[in-house]
Amino acid sequence: MPKLTVEGVGTFEIEEGKRLVKALVEDAGTDQLHACGGVAKCTTCRVEFVEGEPEKMTQAEKDTLRAREVTGAGVRLSCQIACEQDMSVKLISRLEGSGRKDAGSPVADQIEPPPVWTEK
Hints:
The chain has one domain (about 5-95): Beta-grasp domain (Ubiquitin-like (UB roll)), CATH 3.10.20. It is globular and about 30 Å long. Helices cover about 15% and strands about 25% of the residues. The longest helix has 9 residues, at about 60-65. The protein has two helices and seven strands; from the N terminus they run ββαββαβββ.
């Protein structure tokens, strides 16, 4: 089982293949935002990788980061990442202080839209 370390929260064993956004909320108990429900449209589920950033990304993630002009080394959309290896992340977008009424719409178990994998 991969280990997920969330800066300031702790380290957790995660079911292999689980979406990172779901692991952050369900396993780590964080208030990670995911306003669009995990379909790579809003960028509210951004995290910054400290270690273990996956080499591949979905085309949807790449397109959304580019369109929203989200830059920065290691900044990724947690809704588009499967937990397949040990990783360490810093939360960027949290419910606390956001002014939103909730963290977001329900997130499916599988990456949506169906992933087309590319290099980051």
